[in-house]
Amino acid sequence: MIREERNSQMNIIYYIVIALILTRTPYVGKYFKIFNTLVHEIGHVIMSMLTKGKVYHVHLNSDASGLAMTGNRGRISGILVSIAGYPFASLVALFMLYLKEEGHYNYLLIGVTVVLVVSVILWVRNAFGVMWLLLAASISFLFIYYGTDAFVEVYLNILIAVMLVESITTTIELVILTWLDKNNAGDATNLKNYTGIPAIVWSVMFSVVSIYLTYKAVLIIY
């Protein structure tokens, strides 16, 4: 049992190192990073629906950025929708890691595939985003029908590691972006406009939350 736990701990460390390298690799890195972008935007979409707002469309861009166009019912709704993206992405990464540690790779793969299919049907409307979703969904279907257990585990472990890494690096990048240009810092700027609280405060808060949830992920492993 101790040896199995030790192997699990070392495996996730290896995959996190791979994710750090992979996300800085041209083309392939963007493919994996957009998973985090998609989940982030879905966080906005879900919160908009929960607050009875409207969801117009989601864009996924070739530089791994994204945009969720929503119509909010009021100031509180706008605040909640703007807050939702970063914490939701971190929570999904945490949940994926939990499923991995429980050995539920099949549930993970099916869940990823369902999210991809639902996204392309309901929300994503730009050409690149649709193409990426079709590619990612096709790969998932290939793994479902033809993938060996070993290949499925490697693919999902890389995906989980990328999600964990990106959940932190994207919030740190947001802090830097806010410091350099507070009027063009995405969700942080939106929240500043809604609340009057400086964008840098929101950026730091997002970063702290993502680091805390990653700490919780470490507790799952150890």
Number of strands: 2
Order of helices and strands: HHEEHHHHHH
What does the largest sheet look like?
Answer: 2 strands, antiparallel
**CA-based shape:** globular
Radius of gyration: 17 Å
* Spans where pLDDT lies below 50 across 5 or more residues: 1-6
Task: Let me know the average pLDDT.
Answer: 90
Placed side by side, the strands forming the largest sheet appear as: 1-2
Whole-number total of structural domains: 1
Counted by DSSP, the helix tally is 8
Query: End-to-end distance, in Å?
Result: 13 Å
> Hey, roughly how much beta strand do the residues contain?
5-15%
Helix-strand category: mainly alpha
Helical coverage, percent range: over 70%
Describe the structure.
- By secondary structure, the protein is mainly alpha-helical.
- The chain has one domain.
- The chain is 78% helix and 6% strand.
- It is built from eight helices and two strands, in the order ααββαααααα.
- The protein has helices spanning 2-22, 28-50, 75-101, 105-122, 127-146, 149-180, 187-195, 199-221; strands spanning 54-60, 66-71.
- Strands 1-2 form a two-stranded antiparallel sheet.
- Helix 3 (75-101) runs antiparallel to helix 7 (187-195) and helix 3 packs parallel to helix 8.
- The radius of gyration is 17 Å and the shape is globular.
- The two termini are 13 Å apart.
- Residues 1-6 have low confidence and may be disordered.
